[in-house]
Batch of 3 targets.
Target 1
Amino acid sequence: MSEFTHFDAQGHAVMVDVSDKQETERVAVAKGEIVMQPETLARIREGGVKKGDVLSVARLAGIMGAKRTPDLIPLCHPLALTKVTVDLALAPERNAVEITATCKLKGRTGVEMEALTAVSVAALTVYDMCKAVDRGMRIENVRLAHKSGGKSGVYEAS
């Protein structure tokens, strides 16, 4: 296990200095879902949500969220992302919307937080757009599914 490095010698929180790290292509994929009532999922599928096209708005919100990660998560580096995709798929067998975000760049630090933020913001957007009809929705299973690049190598969730 690597040492936790967000503290300086005096014990103060700091942003990690990555200037000596080698630039590599870094990719992270995060996944999550929002579970809801069957009727809510049907409204999303049929375009019956008063606030508009839920999946398109959530996709855009997720991309925007990834780009704003350093504004939301303390000590995250501002990154020049080269690619962000957010895919949303209906999963009627679980009454859920599945969300997958992929973030990519060539740089000195990973993009895991950006991918996780994209999934979270997309899920929160679905919730916001549908809460008038279903306040019991649950955001679940937000997790890192894949990471590559950097010294720690490749991670694949089991």
Note: The CA atoms of residues 22 and 108 lie 6 Å apart.
Target 2
Amino acid sequence: MSGYRGRFAPSPTGLLHAGSLVAALASWLDARAHSGVWLVRIEDVDLPRCLPGAADQILRQLATCGLVSDEPVLRQSDRGAAYQAALDRLIEKRWAYPCGCTRKDIAQALLESGAQRERHEELVYPGRCRPANGGLQGRLARAWRLDIAALSADLGLPATLHWSDRRLGAQQQEVGTQVGDFVLKRADGLWAYQLAVVVDDAEQGITDIVRGQDLADNSARQILLQQALGYPRPRYLHTPLVCGANGEKLSKQNGAAALDLSDPLAALNAAAQRLGLPPQADNLADALAGWTRAWANLYNPAP
């Protein structure tokens, strides 16, 4: 499948850990199993949280494991003009609106409505600044949000979005009630992850997104933005998570240790095991080739 284009998109808020390597290896193997292109994109749009030098160290970590981008590495911090152009298109269609709410405002509105907090402590936006509800009403604009109701009405979209995941199977989410009108540009002027990743995936021609299962919940929001901006929908495959001794997902936020790459093959074998792939005792290149063959049998290349 020569048209296949995949990517691995780490955030340089810390170095790669064991969970990161699982996602990196899976995305690389899926690209190789399709005879496709594998890209690395540095998602450094949240610059205040990025650590100096971390992006370059991540690229070195990947190279030590034999995982090297097939094209020049793209960095989100260079992409502000592209994100603004996408937001301008949504504003022009009246599918995005300014919001003056703080988190405290949202929490208070939800409390008054009797709504329960769901989805891992996220606050479901109640539409307080939505144009159909009167807009800002004198509040100072802080952020920009997607108007899901207006978008869905104009495009005739169903309330519940359905899609398929190559590992998890049939998926669905009613974004309007389970998430609400989500942020496209933050109150601090930084670009929101959802808009940035959708614009970048489209402009890089990404056909397949292979990433950790913790990001599966983002898929519906990103599919909505793809529809709004007229982008094609990639295929999705979300990989198993690596958890610590406390049962929680390894992450930079909870202090996951950086990868020990004194023996790259050992680190890759641990990642491969989490993906259900057999151990490899050969050199790095042969091990990657063996896992590529096994991957094609485990996760048949997408049609």
Note: Strands lie at 5-8, 37-42, 74-75, 96-99, 143-146, 161-165, 169-173, 183-185, 208-212, 235-239.
Target 3
Amino acid sequence: MRIGHGYDVHQLVAERQLILGGVEVPYSLGLLGHSDADVLLHAICDAILGALGQGDIGKHFPDTDAAYKGISSLKLLRHVVDLAAGQGYTIGNLDSTIIAQRPKLAPYIGEMVDKIAVACAVSASRINVKATTTEELGFEGRGEGISAHAVVLLQRVAED
């Protein structure tokens, strides 16, 4: 088995959709980035890539490549999961945390878990997503951005 940790942060700005965990969350601000800027999925991708010893999301999907402009981060996650599968690994479990003062994310977490599980080709029981605030401390607490952490355990695929 292999373990990886991922972290990402994006700035909140006007005139962007807020996409977290592959889910559009209604809010007046969205995350700034070259892709859809899904901070949660980016942290998950980095955790998987880290467990594989394959660098980070910027190495695989550079923001200088027009092919990734506005791309759904679910597509990036599927690609990273395929890389893991190509090396004989599947997700044993994934634990993640979104750090945001606003908006309240609890109503969307179930849908995020389901979308992540489908992209990772595993049961939703292997995926955990949490959300927390910072009690108005730091850039997340001031509403300037959102960050996310993810930890993944990769296991060798059982052969029949």
Note: The beta strands are 2-14, 18-20, 23-25, 29-31, 89-99, 127-132, 145-156.
